[in-house]
Amino acid sequence: MGRQHANMGCSMSLVLNRRGFLAATASFAALHPFSANAAVNQAHLRVMETTDLHVHIWPYDYYADRERDTMGLARAASIVRKIRAEATNSVLYDNGDFLQGNPMGDYMAYERGMKEGDMHPIITALNTLEFDASTLGNHEFNYGLDFLMKSLAGAKFPVISANVAKELGADPTRDITLVPPYVVTDKEITDGIGEVHQIRIGLIGFVPPQIMNWDRRHLEGNVHARDIVESAKAYVPVMKEQGADIIIALSHSGISAARHTEFMGNAAVPLAAIEGIDVVLSGHHHNVFPSATYEGMEAVDVASGTIHGKPAVMAGFWGSHLGLVDLMLETSGGEWRVVDHSSEAHPISKRNEDRSITALVKSDQVVLDSVADMHHATLAYVRRAVGKTSAPLHSYFALVADDPSVQIVSKAQRWYLTEMLKGTEYEGLPLLSAAAPFKAGGRGGPEYYTDVPVGDVAIKNVADLYLYPNTVRAVKVTGRQVKDWLERSAGIFNQVTPGESDQLLLNPNFPSYNFDVIDGVQYKIDLSQPSRFGGRGALTNPDAERIVDLTFNGKPLDLEAEFVIATNNYRASGGGNFPGADGSTIVFEAPDTNRDVIVRYIVNQGTIDPAADANWSFKDLPGTSVLFDTGPKSVDVISDVKGVTIESAGDGDDGFVRYRISL
Ligand code: MN
Ligand code: MG
Q1: pLDDT tens digits, one per residue of 241-287
Q2: Labelling 91: which of 133, 220, 237, 492 has CA 20 to 30 A away?
Q3: Does residue 621 register a pLDDT over 70?
């Protein structure tokens, strides 16, 4: 232990605990007071959590094809080793969503496959780090039950889930569950004077029952999902009967409303209220608890890290944090109970004021080595073609004409939501799709464009097509809101004076990610009008209408009709202040990222045809021209741009090139 600390360059100190025993510790993590204070018949147990790893083992962003200090179980593993080295008693659990969510997961599912006896790299990594148990997250079901069960077969730890059943019984305890609903395990635990006792730890796992919608094609007819709270209430007394001293819920479920509603997906709060549950390990939200994110919620105490007075933790995502719940346990009459607790999520990196990232820990080499072969196989996979595109995917002209790099996102979203909305009340509504060019020069500079040529498309190109880790949303809006959504987008353009030449087209303060193109409708943009909405989205010119000739299925769009728009979580919950997108109109919250959906779309289609359908253009303003700056590489692809009269106009500022568009 001393050598290990010396290697880490940390100073040693000696702590005298209450019983007079000397304990060695190091300044990077001062001895927890529970260890210092544990008396006879008292024991300090450290409960560690990872959650939402999504196959992130190496600190590597496979889409960007570069290392990242913000992710990776190998980084969190270094915190695990430190805690284990100093803790008298510790356990390590994973809270689900380990099997899917990065190109390594896709490589295993789409390319390599799992045969009987194969090891999935995330399971290898969890085995290597000697996890004590895990539960299933919703994403475990993304590749189907056969793939899941073959992956789990390699686990040297129990994987539990109480609310997924192959056959439903009269009550949850009579279900035939897919994996064991819970485990009650004996553990040796050392008290404050070094005496060893036995404790029975009960673990029970839960997943959002929404898996039945999200992965219907894999699950319908094969499994059933129960309500989380209903399952917990049924099983906890059984676990108590089997002698569980303490019960820890591995809850792949977020922290949300306090009031229980049937089949709620984020049920951590009502779950914590259940008598007999001592600790709630939370997840699914990809957030950190305790943190200010959850301040002010009913029954949630951020300062003490509790929900309904029970210690809880949520360890971010992708290995960003190690969750830690410290329990002071006390035994009397052979039974143990929690007498004190604290909780904290330990980050693996920090963001500096200049937005740069500093790693706080190094990778654990043993964990890296355990999956090195699969890491390299994944690198080859992301760099290799998985599909083809029959049109170039570049964004040099995405702000002046309908564009394939936006169209492909739009098409993939529509393809995905068509399936997801089947069997819902929204199935019959017209499904539109909104997407914006994320990389379109501007403050990103003259090289900051999407640029994927005709031919092979590799997985790493998808990051170029979809920059942000957004998740898919569907919103239900009126025709009027569709029009106003487009009016808000059209705020990216300056107002032009008809008949004048060489007016600057773009408002430099309007980010391109707020220039949503909506596919499924046809429209023109009248630049002679002022923008209907101001920079922040306020209705500043109520009489102005830039969106003209707006049609749906060849007829003027009915402003009173209802539509569903496919978009992302940022827009749907109010990002950019778009009319009809304030969070209240969301009708479907997808568990999948837009990026994953694009990858699936490309893999599914083989060859994609992202050719733009020219569903929007500028309204003719004879005798009027505007100037538009874009990246210098645009000169090679100028012939691709359709539906706009454009000619070179020399150089723009700061390395951009300039074009003249005759309206
Ligand atoms: Mn997740
Ligand atoms: Mg289009």
Answers
A1: 999 999 999 999 999 999 999 999 999 999 999 999 999 999 999 89
A2: 237
A3: yes
pLDDT in tens, 533-557: 998 899 999 999 999 999 999 999 9
Q: What is the pLDDT of residue 367?
A: 98
pLDDT at 3: 31
Exposed/middle/buried for residue 553 (C-beta within 10 Å: 0-12, 13-18, 19+): exposed
Q: How far is CA 216 from the centre of its chain?
A: 20
Question: From the CA of 306, how far away is ligand 1's center (Å)?
Answer: 22
CA of 607 to the centre of ligand 1 (A): 29
Span(s) in the chain for CATH 3.60.21.10: 12-379
Please give the distance, rounded to the nearest whole angstrom, from the Cα atom of residue 463 to the centre of ligand 2.
20
Residue with tokens 């590749």: 143
Reply yes or no on whether the pLDDT at 8 is more than 50. no
The yes-or-no verdict on residue 372 having pLDDT over 50 is: yes
Which letter does DSSP use for residue 384 in this model?
A: S
Q: Please tell me the distance between residue 380's alpha carbon and the centre of ligand 2 in angstroms.
A: 33
Residue 62, CA distances (Å) to 71, 318, 619 in order: 11, 13, 42
Q: Give the residue-averaged pLDDT of 580-591.
A: 93
DSSP code of 583?
Answer: S
Ligand number with the minimum distance to the CA of 520: 2
* Nearest ligand by distance to the CA of 437: 2
Neighbours of ion ligand 2 (CB under 5 A): 402, 407, 519, 613, 615
* pLDDT for res 598: 93
Amino acid letter, 480? R
Strands (E), 219-284: 224-225, 246-251, 279-282
DSSP string, 20-76: S-EEEEETTBPPPHHHHH--TTEEEEEEEEE---TT--SSEETTTTEE-TT--HHHH
* Every domain range in the chain assigned CATH 3.90.780.10: 384-662
Instruction: Quote the pLDDT of residue 24.
Output: 39
- Alpha carbon of 260 to ligand 2 centroid (Å): 43
Q: Looking at residue 30, what is its pLDDT?
A: 65
> Is the distance from CB of 342 to CB of 305 less than 8 angstroms?
yes
* Percentage of the chain modeled with pLDDT above 70: 95
For 12-379, CATH number out of 3.40.50.460, 3.20.20.70, 3.60.21.10, 3.90.550.10 equals 3.60.21.10
For 453, other C-beta atoms within 10 Å of its C-beta total: 14
For residue 411, the ligand closest to its alpha carbon is 2
With a cut of 50, say whether residue 12 has pLDDT above it. Answer: no
Ligand nearest to the CA of 402: 2
* Residue 469 Cα to ligand 1 middle (Å): 12
94 CA → ligand 1 middle, Å: 12
Identify the nearest ligand to the CA of 50 by its number: 1
Quick one: pLDDT at residue 484? 98
Could you tell me which of 104, 102, 103, 82 has the C-alpha nearest to residue 31? 82
pLDDT at 215: 84
